[in-house]
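Sample intake sheet
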Amino acid sequence: MRSSNRMTGEQSGRRFRKGEREEGELKGNPTTLTQSRVLDYLEQRFGLDKSLFLEYSFYLGVKDRLYLGPRSDRADMNGMRVATVGLMVARADEHIKPTTNLLQVFGRRIAKSVIDLDKEKAGKFVSGEDIILTPSEIGLVSEGYVLLRYLGIPLGCGHLKDRAIKNMLPKAKRLKLRFI
């Protein structure tokens, strides 16, 4: 068993290979460093205050997926095998990639890195197309992951590079709309 004052591999600068964990480190319990890194990113990139997440716990799943779930004692699962607990909110490997789920759930509280789309571009986005924006549509938003909205409604995650938005909407959430 690992002593409580020993650093995990991530804290000591050691990088883990896929699926590898330090002895005694539980899959499902993210290191404080990973959780802190994601919360810092969400605050800096999207203006989401860390206090929004105080009522929740973070759980680390396979492939560096981070889940946001209820605060509870994970040992009290009565022997059930649980695939995931909560909502996948990010992937946190070398870079942090927020999920559309996170941006849709907390979208009305996001204050930064938001692009409002017109009707035509919103329709293209929800159908899964990448879109090109004008400089005036981009405004002061910097390159990186952004929340795309239509009439204040959070649509999902896109990646802004130059003037192009790479659509990050999962295929299962894409819609072919005739009316918007």
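Comment: The chain has two domains: 32-106, 113-173. Confidence is low (pLDDT under 50) at residues 1-28.
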